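FYI - complex with magnesium ion, inputs then prediction.
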Amino acid sequence: MKNLKIAIQKSGRLNEKSVLLLKNCGLDFENYKSSLITTVSNFNLEILFLRDDDIPGYVEEGIADLGIVGENVIDETQAKVQYLQRLGFGRCTLKLAIPKDSSIDRLEDLNGKSIATSYPNILQNFLTEYKINADIQTISGSVEIAPGLGLSDAICDIVSTGGTLKSNGLKPFCDVRNSEAILIGREGLEENPIICELLQRIQSVLRAKE
Ligand code: PRP
Ligand code: ZN
Ligand code: MG
């Protein structure tokens, strides 16, 4: 039988805990060094190390059978995938944030302002819901630098410890949504003994942590 493929984050907030979860399932493999694909030596599984933003697309296309990625990224890409299991790690909040000394005080104050983000779809839905007309500047990373450079009046990005905001002279303004890591599967993922076995192992690791 062909090996299953699971996509996990190459580096960043979810990498370490994704690797740990799979290791705790008894899988034997090497974490990402330079090869973007690794074979698990004691299970019919290959691990793809990808940018988190690309994971829902790989799973939607069926290039990977499974993936571990933040809910925020799944939502943003609007990929058609199945939610198989909440994983309880990688908890964070997508927030609007503003410079420490900003005069922005209420949500309405964002009207006519520009907001930098890597999550334009989620942000647009949020702004539409609150009838705010702001200019969204989409950038793919280091969003926290934008206000200081004069690119935007506010940002919308993931906050976990709050350290990145703080060290860039920003303060949280408003929560947009919460997120955590999710195990996703491609649509039409057939009942397959290997997937069942892996899911059972993941669920028992999660239960042991409760
Ligand atoms: C998020 C966000 C910040 C950082 C915030 O990045 O973009 O860079 O985490 O964390 P903190 O509040 O603990 O300082 P993410 O891990 O989603 O990685 P990516 O933007 O590179 O995909
Ligand atoms: Zn990312
Ligand atoms: Mg980031």
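The first helix runs from residue 15 to 24. The two ends are 34 Å apart (CA to CA).
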